[in-house]
Amino acid sequence: xxxxxxxxxxxxxxxxxxxxxxxxxxxxxxxxxxxxxxxxxxxxxxxxxxxxxxxxxxxxxxxxxxxxxxxxxxxxxxxxxxxxxxxxxxxxxxxxxxxxxxxxxxxxxxxxxxxxxxxxxxxxxxxxxxxxxxxxxxxxxxxxxxxxxxxxxxxxxxxxxxxxxxxxxxxxxxxxxxxxxxxxxxxxxxxxxxxxxxxxxxxxxxxxxxxxxxxxxxxxxxxxxxxxxxxxxxxxxxxxxxxxxxxxxxxxxxxxxxxxxxxxxxxxxxxxxxxxxxxxxxxxxxxxxxxxxxxxxxxxxxxxxxxxxxxxxxxxxxxxxxxxxxxxxxxxxxxxxxxxxxxxxxxxxxxxxxxxxxxxxxxxxxxxxxxxxxxxxxxxxxxxxxxxxxxxxxxxxxxxxxxxxxxxxxxxxxxxxxxxxxxxxxxxxxxxxxxxxxxxxxxxxxxxxxxxxxxxxxxx
Length: 460
Prior knowledge:
Blueprint: H1 5-19, E1 44-45, H2 62-76, E2 93-94, E3 120-125, E4 144-145, E5 148-149, E6 158-169, E7 175-186, E8 197-202, H3 209-212, H4 217-222, E9 239-243, E10 248-252, H5 263-274, H6 304-315, E11 319-320, H7 328-339, E12 350-351, E13 365-366, E14 374-376, E15 394-396, H8 406-410, H9 424-429, H10 436-444, H11 447-459
Parallel strand pairs: 1-11
Antiparallel strand pairs: 2-5, 3-4, 3-8, 6-7, 9-10, 12-13, 14-15
């Protein structure tokens, strides 16, 4: 257990008990009775340290706490090449050696490739759809370039990123410099086809996903408006993806393009693709049929008990509480956030379904600031790579809870799908497509008003 984690959990339980707060759907209590600090409802913890994303939800049983801690250990464990007595199965090619190496302190990563603490990967595909409607793997590379390898094995390729500056000027004359990335693929073990579609991705935070998993599909669809019936320019659309466990098409809610339907598939896919560790969900090596294949008869390499423990770990990570909610600047920033239209996609409030096993995740009023839907974000952020029903300019609305703590959990914070934005202001200025109008309204604000919006985001 991380140092001090148990005391934060105990403190949160005592706080909820003393205040008598119920974080359920409206009806029992008026709106003003809800504490705005409780971003995750009863699954909220109060911690401002670098470990603020790493606490279990309050109220876990002794057994559930044991499984959570076991999952935590595996999440932080470095895997090694087989054969090995403990945690074998790394590679033969991979992107990193552990979950925590990419998801620093259970939060975001850093926009670099090929290093111990790198959190970037490059998704690839070729035009078209596979038999399930998903992206088509690149022959000899699959759906992801693995840029590292075990001893004696050649990586699939090397990836680097360089930036040039692009100046944005506000109507009041002040300027902001944006980092425009250019990605280079080199030293590929075989030539890549000319028509490969590339999509750089930076590891997102993993806390709070158990709550998002419990938002009913009907609620997600209730906020969709694919035909823009209300003529506000916002066309939120759900993604539907293939679930290899059930063999069915399900609504996508995880991944940067809502391209994954369940936490089990998300975790299993990360083990197999990011670390080369096969499992019951993805039992084949990512390099099957390639010369890097080790041909060891050891698949699946990860026992179900450990796979499910890691899934349980991320599922039961709590959400950090908001800060500074009574500061006048923060309250003004929240009003402006709503007025300029940011809240139309970054939906402040969602509700979870009933779950008798986890009261802190059940029937909760949560504030993730996402609608879990796809939105066209314009050409500046486009990757040009479709993923099921997500087009080349589409991205899932990123949750904003905890975003103000990224400097604490990650040191230098990075934002957006590939970490190109170094500040929250830069992230806003990259918005386009359906968010173009909201961005332009932000740019029309006074400097003090813009700072109030940033202060509000930093309070989340």
